[in-house]
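hey so i finally got around to running the thing on that chain from the lab meeting. sorry it took forever, my laptop kept dying and i had to restart like 3 times. anyway pasting the input first so we r on the same page abt which one it is
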Amino acid sequence: MTIARAATLPRGALVARAWAGLGDAVAPLSNAAGRPLTRTVKLILDPLVLRPVLNPEFAAGAIAAAHADALTSRIADAGPVLAATASWFVVLKKERRRRWITEGNPQDLYFQRCFELATGHGEPGPDAAAVAATVLEEVHGREGPTVAALRDFVTDPANVDGLTRLLDTAWADRVAPAPGPVATSSFLATCAVTPDREAFRALVTGLAGSAGAVDLDLPGVARAHGLTDRDRPVRPGLGRGASKANLPKPFDRSILERLFAPLTNAFQRAGLADVPTLVRREIARSAGPWQLADEESRLVVVLGRDASASLAGDAPVGGPGSAAARLRSRWEREAYVHRVLRMPSAVPPEVRADVRGVREAYLRRLWVRVHGRELRHDTVTADQVWDVLDGVLRSVILDQRDRLRSVLEREAVA
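ok and heres what got predicted. didnt touch it at all, straight out
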């Protein structure tokens, strides 16, 4: 049925209408109201069906009327594959229960695998249980530490006293970084095109990353960087639990929370050290400058801090081709940024907060990125610095776009 025309239509409403047409066959991928689950949209519809990167007309929160029928038709045409995806998800959950697997969120772990099975096999057949067992073995049989093992280790009464003493000792022995000049502008001026490896190595050997952390213990400094909600960083606890949806800022996380996110991803945790080693290294890392262990990682955070200053309104340093200028240019090209800055009163408060706090969000994401690389012993080289700095901003922008789209869709439905 052709949709009644208007200038634009809410994307969420269009998706919900097309989804409702698929009926009960997709119920395992739907919420109680019959709409697609958030993870169904994020993991299946967007990347595998609508593909807004290739079809930008489907990307916005409000879809032009000229494209509304195309969007709903694409979902309707994918109906058989989506129904088979739902059937495979039921099969995998049944096999998961049979094996007493509790690790990870089934939707995160299996949705895209189920879509692959639906595309390759159609509806589950007589061999469905065997196929499901193979998939679960691939997902859960990878070597590497698990969140359950981490939680058990840090909460085991036999370990708590010893680990607490390690924490106390590590923080009692902290040595303030030596102050000194941190001249990053020369490297940042050219790192996007022709990174100067010698300049990068000189900054590393000169401990520029550590020197850049010299003010973090002063009142308000780490908080201004978006790394803590406290006035000063404090010694972390061991922790007893964690939630990916509600992790504190990096310097406010317990030891368990610092290791939680990498261990929830089966692909990331493959090849990581055993749990006792990870925990002891994290305790030592928490007491270092920037609460990182490697000088290269600390330097990358300092480079990101300096390059991202332009996101907060400061003039880019280093000329038109510098890292700061390139980050500023990418940020200013975003239409939603212009809308927030030009018409702040017309924009939802949470979106204004996102845009106003972009530099803090950028530094938090950068810290998480380099911390994860440290866990995998994946040291950032001079040639990789720009990819890391630019990739972090891209990631922040995508998250903010998604939040803006969700807010506008909720308002349109209301």
